Amino acid sequence: MKELLSLLPRPSHYIGTEEGSVHKEPASVRLHCALAFPDLYEVGMSYLGHKILYTILNNREDIFAERVYAPCRETGRLLREHGVSLATLESDTDIVKTHMFAFAITHELCFTNVLYMLELSGIPLRAADRGDDLFRWPLIVAGGGCAIASEPLAPFMDLMLLGEGEEMVPELCDLVIKAREEGWSRSRLIEEAVNIPGVYAPSLYTHDANGVLTPLKPDLPTPGRRIVADFDRAAYPEKQVVPFGAVHNRLSLEIARGCTRGCRFCQAGVLYRPARERSLPNLEKILENCLNDTGFDDVSFLALSTGDFSALKTLFLGTMDRCEAEQISVSLPSLRVGSIDDDIMRRLAGIRRTGATLAPEAGSQRLRDIINKGVTEEGLMLHVRKLFEHGWQQVKLYFMIGLPGETEEDIEAIVDLCRKARDAAGRGMPRLQVTAAISPFVPKSHTPFQWEPQISLEQVRERVQYLRDAFRAEKCLKLRWHEPEMSFLEGVLSRADRRIADVVEKAYRRGAIFASWMDHFSIDPWLESLAECGLTAEEFTGARELDAPLPWDHLNAGVSREFLLRERRRAFEGKISDDCRYAACRQCGACDTAAGKSLLPRTPGLEEGTHRNSLNFKQRDQLEHQPNLDENGRLLMPPKPPKATEPPAINSALAVKAVRYRVWHTKEAEAAYISQLELQSLLERAMRRAGLPMAFSQGFHPLPLISFGRALPVGVESQAEWFSIVLREPLSAEEVMKRLAPRMLRGLRLDRLEEIPVNDKSVGSVQETFSLRFVGSDADRRLFMEAWDDFTATDSLMFTRETKKGPRTADIRPLFQVIEWDEHGTLYIVTDWSETYISPMTLARAITPWAEQHQLKIMKLSQMFG
């Protein structure tokens, strides 16, 4: 793929040279694995599961695990047009030449992206079409949180991995190595693999006309969800790959796994039981090592319910003390109503107060009790008042519509609850806004609501319209909603059987990829494919009989059917089930208890008693919060600061300007495809990894005092790039070079440092020298030279280019001071930017418009300041 880099959109997403990426010689390892994420790079690079497996596998000398992501539509078109196969990022190896192609399936709407990646790799989509020769095609594997309910993907997979992969994936890799070295067939490997706890082989089951599955062998082990029992000892990627841009471009610190809060709609709450926390000393060590090795300036705690971490206050306050000294921000996503106290709120308010998000899920208390949300209206208002008291002015509340037992009064209660949240702010809040975010309820497998119907598209539209009309008349209230058709499709796929596999393939053939992206989504290919297959959506979104077989009954999720039925019954009785972390055991089946051992498959060698909730403290380390109220029960706001618009002061030591250097560097090879915006972030992180004491600006958002020269066009190399950095300690140029040089990315090389006055303004170059080579046939090279000779001989060439302000026409000939050829046919150009600047690539294309961009190799050689 890398031969097409100059043609690809966002080419940096395909070069694989990020800090932390691993490079090995594929021929030197026993197993070459492609870890695939079926979505765009910026989404996949935010996924912690990939980083964990990437680290575990590459820590072994005999395995090379590389990354691959779903290329955007335009890149996919270019690959097909040029006859180039999808390849791994690190070594640019065609996927078809790897030994194992392993997908992370995180949601149902990525199913067609899996087929997209298989086809771009030249691999037959169906497992049955790949034959029995293990060496002809890679082993195709799927895992991730959605794998345990992915029967629509089963005909395309050789194996599916259920549960957590830290222990299971290496065991499977060992078996694949053995199979390849002993010359096994694909079918023998599959039959042997099911003996690994957590591994499921779809081909060993057959289904009838209704999608009901039957094992082909009577003694087949029951596939079950596997967990890492000793979570505190689980491997964690301390030296992570630092992305060239990602949706969540930060350090995600997984503090806990699993949630036993017991929300009856929540599949993740079932599929990650028991609740297991990392110890505080381990988290402190991981945090320190990760920050030192990555240079991230943002830390986010990761858990299904961060606020339920038993030692959250201790961990958060300690992390804040560590990070504030280096201007590293800390965030707490996934906070439950009432889960943080005043001390945490006060420190959070000092970081940022852009907006807070809470999830009551339902408007009425009756419906919240049905779903076991464990949130009262009083508790929600208390939390909202707390937010306003500490300076937040924007609050988002998440709700679902179409929940089991929902009535018109429950929809009206959403509006009423948002009004109460708004009114809790009192007066004098100029930017007050309460946003209700609405999503249709989608019943999921392995939950107490797996038998319930999903409301129709028309019903969703009616309820959204009612809310739109109600919110339109309200001040400071705003409504957002999830696309109904997208939730409808999710509902079809989430409880489907293998009959839907034909629908998935036909929808893909109709162009349905990136279904989770609104600008790519269309329901039409799916409806047409359902009709072509003689199926209806209602077969999969409708209610299920309690005694009828379900498409996932053959898979063990680790909780009993009796538990799910019991919770369903309690739901319609309006009864709450307490969190078993801090209350009585609910006998779900996930833990080893006195009543019996866990239903979960056990890692070989582990004894009974290991599958259980594991917490730092027996009770949460936070105090109950009470807001400040007047005698009438209204919120007393804290006194306003003297100047409300004055930014908070940062530590004065961070703003000291001791010395400033201009850092000259070379940018070549794959690094030429890193954009200027990406480069700025990467260099800042490199300086953090190098331990350079950067000086910071003052204001609402203090930033390192780094400035850059003119942006180099993507794809252009340079031997004369620079940036300047202000340090708060007077380190010598030699010391800075010693620390920073080893931390630079591949393709970026430090050349020299020069000290400049700390308060000098950044200046742009007025003269630059470039070399230009043409890569192509001899005939095209002659045309190229003739075009430049003609241009050299002319006095004027008018050129029109598109700018942000519209088309601009200018004479580009005066921009060229010198145009000379050397004996090898390389063109040397000296440009004059004193009056205007135009990208050198744009200029080269203007003179030879017939030449493709990848045929023009430009290198900046020098630059001169005015």
Automatic annotation (TrEMBL):
Transmembrane segments: none
Gene3D superfamilies attached to this UniProt entry: tm_1862 like domain
Pfam families, alphabetized: DUF2344, Radical_SAM, Radical_SAM_N2
Domain Radical SAM core: 245-477
GO terms for MF: catalytic activity; iron-sulfur cluster binding
Highest taxon listed in the record's lineage: Bacteria
Matches recorded under SUPFAM superfamilies: Radical SAM enzymes
Signal peptide limits: none
Location of the region described as Disordered in the Swiss-Prot/TrEMBL record: 601-648
Composition bias type Basic and acidic residues, residue spans: 618-633
NCBIfam families: rSAM_fuse_unch, sam_1_link_chp
Name of the protein: Radical SAM-linked protein
Species whose genome carries this gene: Bilophila wadsworthia (strain 3_1_6)
Lineage of the species this protein comes from: Bacteria, Pseudomonadati, Thermodesulfobacteriota, Desulfovibrionia, Desulfovibrionales
